[in-house]
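Problem statement: downstream parser choked on a complex file, so we are re-checking the raw output for the iron/sulfur cluster run. The parser issue turned out to be on our end (a line-ending mismatch), but while we're here, posting the original submission so the record is complete.
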Amino acid sequence: MILSFPNMGSNRIAFKTLFEQLDIKVVLPDPTNREAIKIGVKHSPEFVCFPFKATLGDFVSAIKKGADTLVMAVDCGPCRFGFYGAVQERLLHDMGYKDVNVIPLDQADLLEFKWVKTLQEVSGKRDLFAYSKFVKAVIFFLKKAKLLSDIQTAEGLFRAYERNQGDTTEVYKTVISKLDQANTLKELRSFKNLIKEDFNKIDIDRTRTPLRVAIFGEIHISLEPFVNVDIRRKLGEMGVEIHQNLSLWDWVSHKFHLNFHRKWLEHLSHPYVPMDIGGECQWVLGEYIDRAQTGFDASCHIYPFTCMPEVTARTIITNKLKKIYDLPIIFFSFDDQSGTEGMRTRLEAFYDLMDSRRKHKLGKEKILN
Ligand code: SF4
């Protein structure tokens, strides 16, 4: 058996560790690219969500590299995510990949431990002695997920201060590659220091006072740079501090009922959406309110075209929250047609707006006049 799973930015290295620690042979799909998206779009129903198409393309890439077992996370709904795995398996069989299995990895409530059964199924390890291996694999996965979240935070902050454009991106790539190769507990325990050391080598200008922007939205779009046209890097290179809570760690710790920050966001969004309606709707509303209350310069909501929960969040922000809270927001919906140039123009205009709003707030315009 050769196993694979779809891309989700750098987070794929955490999943790779999880399965490799269980002695499963893993191949990674090529990083998501134009060709994979083209294949996904060609073979998917036209109105299905964009992440479905992108991940189908990743699966085909993995199959071409020898994968015969594909793992896809599933949830209990309530949006289309619950059907991804089953429908993708049928489509792959129709495309001629008859021997491929798509195995659902249930993430609805990780404390129900259905995922253990999936890991047992794919690893073929069911005896008592295998438990220590399971525990080790899960610890490695969680540690790497947490470190990936720390790296994401550092990258979002440092880029706004770098003197030489591109330094942060280089360090980011290097640190991710080192994390991929770290395969002992000792290395993982000291990895936080390595992150600090490597990022502190970047030549930064501490006198800057960058604009602070919060990014939130649907998880696949938020974590896979190819599908979001690398929006974090683009904004960062304009000199903006990026703050993004959403990460693989953020999601997994929430599913283990350990994420109290998400509970806070649920509390904030409760008057508008009192339950999980899929995607990140509830938490996007909470993020918007929280960032407005904590003095951010602006926010950016990113989601796939036709994503029902995120469009609901957008509508509530536009029609209700923006009248209550003073926080500018820009919306980006992504699909296979999304391009760099249109986005750059909108981001530049948005940057100007944020900048003049801040100057206005500080009373600088008055002083200069
Ligand atoms: S969250 Fe949005 S994009 Fe993801 S499956 Fe649900 S509807 Fe589709």
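For whoever reads this later: Residues 2-126 form a domain with the Rossmann fold fold (CATH 3.40.50).
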